[in-house]
Amino acid sequence: MSSMPTALLPRPSDKPAVSPTVFQDIATGEFLTLFAIVVFLQVLFLFRRRLLNGAMAVMTLTKPQGPTGDFKGDINVTNIPPSKADLEKVADHPVLDADGKPHKFKSLYTSNPDVKQTLIIFIRHFFCGNCQEYLRSLSTSITPSTLSSLDVPTQIVIIGCGQPELIPMYIKETECSFPIYSDPTKVLYQKLGMTRTLSLGEKHPEYMQYSLPSAIIRAFYQSLKSGRNMLRGGDYWQVGGEFLFEREGQGEKERDTVTWCHRMRNTRDHAEIPTVRNLLGLDGAKPPLRKTFSSGIRRSSSQLSRRLSEKRLSWNRSRERGEKSSPEGSMMEKVKEEQ
Fold first, then answer.
1. Torsion of CA 180, 289, 279, 185, to 10 degrees
2. What's the pLDDT tens digit per position in 237-284?
3. Residue from 194, 181, 178, 183 nearest 65 by CA
4. Which of 3, 135, 214, 261 is spaced 20 to 30 A from 174 at the CA atom?
5. 324: Cβ contacts below 8 Å, ≥ 6 apart
6. Are 263 and 291 in contact (CB under 8 A)?
7. Strand 117-122 relative to strand 102-104: parallel, antiparallel, unpaired?
8. Are the CB atoms for 188 and 179 separated by under 8 Å?
9. How far is CA 224 from the centre of its chain?
């Protein structure tokens, strides 16, 4: 057999090279596709309950129960504490811990006989950036050691409306040192008079140290990172509030009542930290400033601008000295002196 001419043999250099940008374009396209799918699912989940409520209202010719808000304006809710009868209706309702273990609602404020007042904070869904900011500010302003210094033994408990398996993620994101439970059925929210709305309200609360866009981006990233739990954070429309339970009387006459409450009128309407501190018997100090991602960017940007300005001044001075030391610069100086 005659051997094939070497000129016709394929060489490695003859193979068509694949540009790295091809792989980059493919990866970018897949990411954008995934991003669009996630956004669509989020929007669909956001509006699914409103569409369902509207459809049920038309079919049954009845209005949805409970006050419901829209995107604009605060909801007109009352801050009258729930009555003894209201508390008895929800006393045995189960709330779930991080392991999914049920606990009776009343056990949150009656199980420890030494605790005389319990502040129960109802938050929104577990991906809500506004509520996460509230708990970050609350946790830096009021710690368990702060509560232990009070004359009246006090505890704080958090309840969300998402699935309990997201509680560990929520604790990690907020660095919350208080126990967190969940009520996915939202029975407590409904029976205790809390409402539903998507309105942001007109006032930017003091407890939010992240900007609103930053909080939204962080929440979106958390939901994306949670994978299959992305749609298990809770009802996006549900808002919460704060309820202070106090133990009154002694012996057989001892009972726990709600002496103060605040129901949210929009998605950023938690009771401000100074209000909570005064309520518990502390001073009305504002929460300390925390190091946030956006503040770090602002500091870095200002430092970079200052350094660039200094460099620009240095370059201008060097150029001026160079022009004066050159023959042309010396001649121009002489001409200016003669004139």
1. -30
2. 999 999 999 998 887 788 899 999 999 999 999 999 999 999 999 987
3. 194
4. 261
5. 330, 333
6. no
7. unpaired
8. no
9. 14
